[in-house]
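Forwarding these from the shared drive since the link keeps breaking.
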Amino acid sequence: MSKVYIITGSSTGIGFALAEYFGKKGNKVYGLSRKMTDSPHFTCLPTDVTNNDDVKNAVATILEKESKIDVLINNAGMGMVGAVEDSSQDEILKLFNLNLVGTVQMIGAVMPTMRAQKSGQIINISSIGSEMGLPFRGFYSASKAAVDKVTEAMRYEVEQWNVNVCSLHLGDIKTNIADNRIKTNVSAPYQGIFEKVYTLMNAHVDKGNEPLEVATYIDQLLQKSSWKAHYYFGAFGQKIGVPLKWILPQNLYEHLMKKYNNLK
């Protein structure tokens, strides 16, 4: 049975792959992104998810054509790299405005419909890196961790209307994320160590999973009648970092993280 999907950040990368994948399966897919994208498989609505008027207008346009909204995938987001000390207020606010506020505004726009129809599925795209403070990605980790806590809180609040919500924590996915990251001006004391970490960071992305693999995983997830709060998708070496953080002594865990991030 055809469903109505809203997928944010659909112009490139994971969002585009998701929109194409679910559109090809015969669903009505609306891709929201700031940049217009042509595809025979989904309808693009130019939308800045950090602008609440844009968000409300986009959802209103969809509801003029459709009688329901079944699935929201909050994929729009960006990365940020640099030392905590060097990061500016403007950079931090820009990051949180997209990764957290944009996500919350999308949820607020679709929830009245999902509440009325007493059904809905909302997937907030997070990161394995939200479970730990990644070196030189501290604010990115923090922004995605904030999304996770909002997700956990929402699960209690919307269960009464049969709306499922979860965070999907992704490892490195082969996309152009590096082109859109906020990159702070790295000060002299950090430059040497930052370049080592940054080079490895980009190498991990280049060797990451394909966006289509994320789409097939989400398709399987959407078949479940109930969800856990958190799901993890990515390379084993990245996923294993989550339970290890829970069970290992802090000093040992930090030692392993330093080795993984080329800091040893």
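-- next protein --
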Amino acid sequence: MKAAARHPGYSLLAILLVAVGIGPLLTYGLSSVSELVITELAISEAQFGLIATVCFGAGAIGNAVFGRFTDRQPDSRLLVLVFALASMALVLAMIPGGYVLLLVASGCAGLAQSFPNGVTNRILAQRVPADRRIGWIGIKQSGVQVSQLVASLGFPALAAWIGWRGASGVGAVVAILLGVIALRVLSAVPLLPPTPISVDSAASGLPTAAPTSIRFTIWALAAFGFINGMGVQATNIYLSLYAVRELNFSLVLGGAAAAVAGAIGVAARVGWGRMMSRGMAAPPLLLLLATLALAGAGVFLAAGAIHSAALLWLAVAMHGASALGVSVVLMAAVVRGVPSSSMGMASGMVSAGQFGGFTIGPLVMGTIVGSPGGFTLGWTVVAGIYALSVMLGLYLVLRRRRRIRAA
């Protein structure tokens, strides 16, 4: 038992990754077959964007409201909630009940994303040795992009065979099986012996151990997540549709574009997580990612302007490497700077910021895409959003430098 506590197996890491990724499966799946969903349900682009808005709105509310609840519940119960809600969402999407039922399914998928960051961060803090935690955060946070990769490839392929509702049914079965496996794996990994936890300001990247500074850290990370989140999901939700409509990609190839973004996002989150584990501070890394995301939005705009598939693939790569990597930096900063007893609250607040951005981004993008401005105006707005994140990142870097000099 002691050896297991010192060296939890990679099966634990795998179930952490799956717990983070199972909630977004429906949203990414629907996005990859957006043209089919829009046509079958006879809805507008803005109405399609509302599906994602409902999902992420439910996630934002859930993360904000259930943070303290997460701190009081056992890990196993929270995992049951995550997988049960994700399965329910996929089952509801499978039922041909029209647009309203699909909104309900999307809301369930959002609620499924209210708990994973809090419970997985706490599992890391309480069951994984300190020298492995930050590196594991990079991997487990890539679960969202693994979900994007799997859904963007799987849904279009299954939709060609059994329809997009059938693809949702397959996803529900997979979610249930993965939930059972997750509970079995978790039960085999014991808690580490309790140790005093201190806030290491140099490691956290937002220096100081003062409670007021911890609160600032949480709010600053939540604000950055909110701004970045608007750009992330405005891009993710409409990437496949953009490729199909503006660059004449096939449905499968449009899904592949989103899948490539997800695959690069997986590698990016692992890579940025490793940089954090080697002592990289959060503010300069957030500034770098925001700058790259801003450049990527410009490339998306250029791809449509000159109808260049090559530029689209470049933009997809830049999006995956930058904006999709922000979450691991935010969560690593939380795990470094917050006691495990408050991990659910802190993770919930930062996640609520991200989901707030996720909520607004698709709705705004959908409204713009359906307007005369189309995707040209849409990518311009996305670039403006990332410009705001650059400014916030720069402020955090300068603030950190001032505090280091003062110390």
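Residues 1-6, 197-210 have pLDDT under 50 and may be disordered. The two ends are 43 Å apart (CA to CA).

- D.
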